[in-house]
Amino acid sequence: MSSLRELDLGYNQLTGSLPSEIGMMTSLGYLDLGDNQLTGSVPSEIGMMSSLTNLRLDDNQLTGSVPSEIGMLSSLEYLDLSSNQLTGSFPSEIGLVSSLEYLFLNSNQLTGSVPSEI
Predict the structure, then answer these.
(1) What pairs with residue 38 in β-bridges?
(2) What distance, in Å, lies between the first and last C-alpha atoms of the chain?
(3) Which pLDDT score is estimated for 116?
(4) Sign of CA dihedral 84, 65, 81, 6
(5) Residues 6+ away with beta carbon under 8 Å from 35
(6) Could you tell me if 33 and 52 are in contact, meaning their C-beta atoms sit under 8 angstroms apart?
(7) Does residue 115 carry a pLDDT above 80?
(8) In which band, very low, low, confident or very high, does the pLDDT at 90 lie, cut at 50, 70 and 90?
(9) DSSP structure string for the chain
(10) Full-model pTM
């Protein structure tokens, strides 16, 4: 599946965690795993998905912090991590993604201040 461009598995009942191998899907531009029952953390390898423009992981049970590697996704336009159980501070690296137009982090347990890079 190395040439896969879009993957939409949203609104299912998928369980388990996101594998670190997800970072090998470098041709993927659209990834929707929202509205499932995924657990665990967002793997830092997600930062290797260089073609990603849309990432939707909302309405799951993801925990841990938002990985700073998201700042490496230079083509990212849409990021939705809302309605999970994410903790920690808001990663300032998200401000490095100049193409980002839509950012949803609501309904989590994030702490600290909003970085000035946003």
Answers:
(1) 16
(2) 34
(3) 80
(4) negative
(5) 10, 11, 12, 58, 59, 60
(6) no
(7) no
(8) confident
(9) -TT--EEE--SS--EEE--GGGGG-TT--EEE--SSEEEEPPPGGGGG-TT--EEE--SSEEEEPPPGGGGG-TT--EEE--SSEEEEEPPGGGGG-TT--EEE--SSEEES---TT-
(10) 0.95
Kindly report the length of the chain: 118
In the chain the domains, ranked by start, together with CATH numbers, are 6-111 (3.80.10.10)
Tokens of 35: 């509205």
* Interior/surface letters 91-115, b for 16+ CB within 10 angstroms, e for the rest: bebbeebeebeebebeebebeeeee
Tokens of 47: 């930062």
Distance of CA 101 to the CA centre of its chain: 14
**Residue pointed to by tokens 């083509």:** 75
8 A C-beta contact, residue 9 and residue 34: no
